[in-house]
Design goal:
Blueprint (H helix, E strand, L loop, with lengths): L8 H15 L11 H8 L3 H13 L3 E4 L3 E4 L2 H5 L10 H14 L12 H8 L3 H14 L2 E4 L3 E4 L8
Antiparallel strand pairs: 1-2, 3-4
Helix pairs in contact: 1-3, 2-3, 5-7, 6-7
Length: about 160
């Protein structure tokens, strides 16, 4: 079992990658190294890398291309709400709001997230849209699904002291 990565390490990784993008070391359209390569470079688990990449995606600095990996966004993509020239998808907005609640401490480590049904009622979206928002958070490592119980915050542990 590997030792726990210190809280906030993903922010440092995001900062390092952000610096590479803003300095031009990674230009628009350039592919980022794989999650495995970044994990090896920074000496962290892929979950930590995913959280850093999710932060950069939320800032519209990078985007995922299915089958290709993540690439640096163009200036035009950064200006559009979704980063791909289309309005921000509802599921991404819901995921972003839940991510903010986790980061802000409204949802803490071990707390249950709202159910799909609750998100459907709150946001007026389909169950599939609610499920997609929750799945996006699972993919970043912030949330874990427990069969028959729901989804819970797993990646927002804050330092004590």
């Amino acid at each position: 079992m590997s030792p726990r990565t210190p809280w906030g390490t993903y922010h440092q990784i995001a900062d390092a990658l952000r610096s590479r993008i803003t300095s031009g070391d990674l230009a628009p359209g350039d592919a980022l190294p794989s999650e495995a390569a970044l994990g090896q470079e920074f000496g962290v688990a892929r979950t930590t890398v995913r959280r850093a990449l999710a932060e950069l995606e939320s800032e519209r600095l990078i985007r995922a291309l299915p089958g290709t990996g993540r690439v640096v966004c163009t200036v035009e993509e950064r200006k559009s709400p979704s980063g791909d020239g289309t309005p921000l998808a509802q599921y991404r907005r819901i995921a972003a709001e839940l991510r903010e609640k986790i980061a802000g401490g409204d949802l803490s480590l071990g707390d249950a997230l709202p159910s799909e049904a609750a998100l459907v009622r709150e946001y007026g979206v389909s169950r599939g849209t609610a499920r997609q928002a929750l799945s996006e958070l699972e993919g970043t490592g912030l949330v874990v699904a427990v069969h028959g119980k729901g989804r819970f915050v797993q990646g927002s542990e804050k330092p004590t002291g």
